[in-house]
């Protein structure tokens, strides 16, 4: 909530007159100063509807799969589970945010939704950075990776990410912190740069790691290449608009940035709560809790779509 305070002092008799302060409090609004420029805010909320309909169940499904596979986990499963949990929480808070926009108009509820936005701003980039770090060390430094495969290292790193996430989210919920938006700008630039460098290095290393005299990549490395490439595409699609626009915040008018640029850019970030679990599920060879016939039909459909006439064997 913004407060506008104006003071008028009567200086004709300083010994007897006390300063008179006229305080005008701006009423709380869920549109936060964009009451007449709310189109981009509604666009962001509309995009988040996908997180409610698709993102919440798919993230819960990812968590169920990770729990089911806990006896034979991947080194990145801890990060994936934490990311899916945070995305599911963000989807649930979207429902509360919608109700507050159109019914409650509560400042307390708005503070809780601001906290959830802080969770989304921080947890996604940081946990994706952890996944990229895990893959980066595994591909480029396999000996070092083998020495640090113990889950405790990932747990320590996840706890650190949670602490940073909650500290940032609490500060965002409190509000009125000078230049607080610069913190997010620095964070998104740093994490985006790190993820891009990691993924390009991994892709370049896997591309060069073909056997002597062979044109085809090893099947396992080819699979790893596709996994990293899909993560790279997610990073570029969801985070590039923020990276491209936020450093130039001073070039926009305050109303234009706050009411149009910021919600539109954040819409690309918020939809990652749906894209990330869908990409993870699409990479699985076998999905627990589903009959094999469903997976066979899915694989058959995908193979049929990917087959072109040029690729069909001659008669």
Walk me through this protein's architecture.
The radius of gyration is 25 Å and the shape is globular. Helix content is 70%, strand content 4%. It has a single domain (36-282), classed as Rhopdopsin 7-helix transmembrane proteins. It is mainly α and 315 residues long. The protein has helices spanning 39-68, 77-104, 107-140, 142-147, 151-174, 180-208, 219-245, 254-270, 272-282, 292-306, and strands at 3-8, 20-25. It starts with a strand and ends in a 9-residue tail after the last helix. The chain has a two-stranded antiparallel ribbon with strand order 1-2. The model is unreliable at 1-23 and 302-315 (pLDDT under 50). Helix 1 (39-68) packs antiparallel against helix 2 and helix 3 packs parallel to helix 6.
Report the span from N to C terminus: 72 Å
- The chain-level mean pLDDT equals 81
The low-confidence parts are 1-23, 302-315
Largest sheet: 2 strands, antiparallel
Going by CATH, the homologous superfamily would be Rhodopsin 7-helix transmembrane proteins
Shape: globular
Order of helices and strands: EEHHHHHHHHHH
At CATH level 2, the architecture is: Up-down Bundle
CATH class: Mainly Alpha
Quote the beta fraction: under 5%
**Oligomeric category:** single chain
Total number of beta strands? 2
According to CATH, the fold-level topology is Rhopdopsin 7-helix transmembrane proteins
Report the radius of gyration as a whole number of Å: 25 Å
| Helicity, as a percent range | over 70%
Number of helical runs? 10
Could you say which structural class the secondary elements and strand pairing correspond to?
mainly alpha
Overall tally of domains: 1
**Order of strands in the sheet with most strands:** 1-2
């Amino acid at each position: 909530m913004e407060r506008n305070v104006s003071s008028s002092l009567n200086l004709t008799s300083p010994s007897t007159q006390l300063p008179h302060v006229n305080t005008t409090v701006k009423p709380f609004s869920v549109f936060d100063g964009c009451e007449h420029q709310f189109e981009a805010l509604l666009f962001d909320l509309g995009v988040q509807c996908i997180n409610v309909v698709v993102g919440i169940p798919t993230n819960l499904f990812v968590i169920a799969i990770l729990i089911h596979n806990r006896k034979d986990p991947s080194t990145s499963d801890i990060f994936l589970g934490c990311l899916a949990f945070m995305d599911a929480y963000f989807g649930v808070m979207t429902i509360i945010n919608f109700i507050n926009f159109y019914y409650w108009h509560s400042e307390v509820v708005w503070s809780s939704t601001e906290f959830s936005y802080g969770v989304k701003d921080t947890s996604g980039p940081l946990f994706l950075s952890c996944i990229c770090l895990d893959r980066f060390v595994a591909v480029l430094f396999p000996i070092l990776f083998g020495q640090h495969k113990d889950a405790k290292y990932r747990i320590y790193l996840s706890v650190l990410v949670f602490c940073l996430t909650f500290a940032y989210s609490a500060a965002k919920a409190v509000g009125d912190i000078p230049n607080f938006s610069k913190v997010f700008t620095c964070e998104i630039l740093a994490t985006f740069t790190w993820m891009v460098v990691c993924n390009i290095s991994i892709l370049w290393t896997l591309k060069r790691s073909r056997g002597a005299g062979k044109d085809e990549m090893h099947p396992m490395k080819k699979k790893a290449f596709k996994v990293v490439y899909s993560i790279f595409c997610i990073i570029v699609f969801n985070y590039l608009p923020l990276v491209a626009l936020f450093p130039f915040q001073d070039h926009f008018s305050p109303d234009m940035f706050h009411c149009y640029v910021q919600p539109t850019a954040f819409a690309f970030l918020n939809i990652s709560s749906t894209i990330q679990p869908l990409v993870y599920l699409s990479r699985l060879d076998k999905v627990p809790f589903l009959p094999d016939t469903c997976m066979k039909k899915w694989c058959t459909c995908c193979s049929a779509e990917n087959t072109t006439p040029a690729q069909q064997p001659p008669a």
